[in-house]
Amino acid sequence: MKHRILLALALTGCGVAPYVGPERMTDAPSPRSVVQVHFKDRATLDHLSQRGVDLFENVDAARGTVGATLTPETQLVLKDLAVDFDVMVPTLAEAGLPDGYLTLDQLAADLKAIAAAHPTIARAVELGKSLEGRPILALEITSKPGQGLPAVRIGAGQHARELPPVELANRFMHQLVDGYGKDAKLTALVDTRDTWIVPVVNPDGRAKVEAGKSMWRKNTRQLAQGAQGVDTNRNCDSHWASGNSSPFSEAYRGTAPFSEPESRAMRDLCSKQRFKVSLDMHNFGGMVLWPPGHTATPSKDEPAFKAIGSKLADHLGYKAGTIATTIYVTDGDLASWEYEKFGTLAFAAELDDGAFGPAHERVEKDWQAWSPNLVALVEAAKPAP
Ligand SMILES: [Zn+2]
User: Fold this and answer.
1) Is 325 or 4 the better-scoring residue by pLDDT?
2) Most buried by CB count within 10 Å: which residue of 114, 200, 229, 285?
3) How do 345-351 and 277-283 pair as beta strands?
4) What is the mean pLDDT of the chain?
5) How many Å lie between the centroid of ligand 1 and the Cα of residue 159?
6) How far is the CA of 285 from the centre of ligand 1 (A)?
């Protein structure tokens, strides 16, 4: 069904239309549909994102399409902006964690079991607690902790509904520790790098998904007027002020930079370890991305980002480029903050699964594709000559 909307909102200049008030006044759940949005230019895409439309990351700039979920309220934003869309799924059924995925409890137990089984090369570290008091766990893998080896961070699970990246982070822990002493390359990486893996940055959001809210993205902070959740990947202190200020938006920035314990846990880890290279895994869109998120102008380190990022993307058949030019403008994202603050070659990836939480069989295909890439990423953190 094609919606031809004739009522156009006159947008003045290229500034972003201001947020004009709560999109809904009660905490009654809004039914959601999944749609494909047709945008005519990147400015429209940025307006939609700013106005709180839950856009997916699968932007196809050539065709001018992107997926989204719509509530009756955000549908009005598309109407305002005279943007067409096709309805793909009229009413989304939410069903929790699909069969085969590890639960939050299993993931935590597994991380601790790996550390216990490999005490000379792996340590379980609690980075902090989530808003609801759940531990945010990391596994540090190196045979020489605290010796200043080039450090690498691999994270997943900031956006709760994006399930396969969490499984890949978990599998990569196993790959590194199981390969130690058996595989020459993996052994060398454990001896010459300090690798930190954070499989679930946002455990409260993940618990919500497991409890049935399979489209939950943000953390679970209670906000005014029944809104809930801050996007931890818009809560970092990088161009935060221009981020999304609507508590009902799926990309809500929060009340202040690093207002959320989950983003503070990542801030503190990054500040302590000063990672040379990092990767934050998301789903979906089939992209390897790097800063900046807030502007289309590339950073001075564009050649270094491109050399590594394009290689990863080519192996996967993904798109590659800056966040702002490949998806849409973002403010306060972790990769951009980490790069600006510490010069980390901080990447983000969107897997290409075509759904946030696909059937678990899909994870095997992702793992085959990503396993060599994760090894290459750790390798890319070069020791000083
Ligand atoms: Zn994401």
Assistant:
1) 325
2) 200
3) parallel
4) 90
5) 5
6) 10
Q: 77 CA distance to ligand 1 centroid (A)?
A: 22
Centre of ligand 1 from the C-alpha of residue 173, in Å: 21
* CA 337 to centroid of ligand 1, rounded, Å: 16
Ligand 1 centroid–CA 81 distance in Å is: 25
Per-residue pLDDT at 225 = 83
Domains in the chain: ranges and CATH: 1-93 (3.30.70.250), 104-379 (3.40.630.10)
Centroid of ligand 1 to alpha carbon of 46 (angstroms): 17
- Ligand 1 centroid to 156 CA: how many Å? 9
Q: Does pLDDT of 21 surpass 70?
A: no
Return the pLDDT at 18: 33
